[in-house]
Amino acid sequence: MTDHPLRPHTEAVRPEWIDYNGHMNVAYYVLAFDHATDALLDHVGLGAAYVRAENRSVFVLEMHVTYEREVKAGDPLSIATRVLGVDDKRVHLVHEMRHAGEGWLAATNELVLMHVDLAERRSCPLPAAAGACLRGVHQAQAGSPVPSQVGRVIGLRPRSKP
Q: Domains of the chain: which residue ranges?
């Protein structure tokens, strides 16, 4: 667990992530976002070492991805994470994936995570230290604007008539 500010996760689009359309396949956006989630969990003390030591982890309850602009092989990515809310068992967060060199938004990923006892396969309270760290990140980010993609509902909207 660390007190320093949450840094963006960075990586480059790998050639094997490219599909037959010549851009990163949708599944690999989720993988890159998962890497950013792992970075957050490491930051707050809920990473792989915690899982091995405590037999507890976090599961994703819900996830929404928006695709804003395509990325291609070799493109550098920067994924910023914003903690939107924390309660005793759950975390609501959003990732924003940007082209690291040019700064434009490529995609967003909104998630709700649940802390789980792996032996019982049931939810359980977050450890006090991790919960405090998550609340600290949330408070530190409170002044930042919430991405417009947060809270979107999926569906077809009626087209406007000319």
A: 9-141
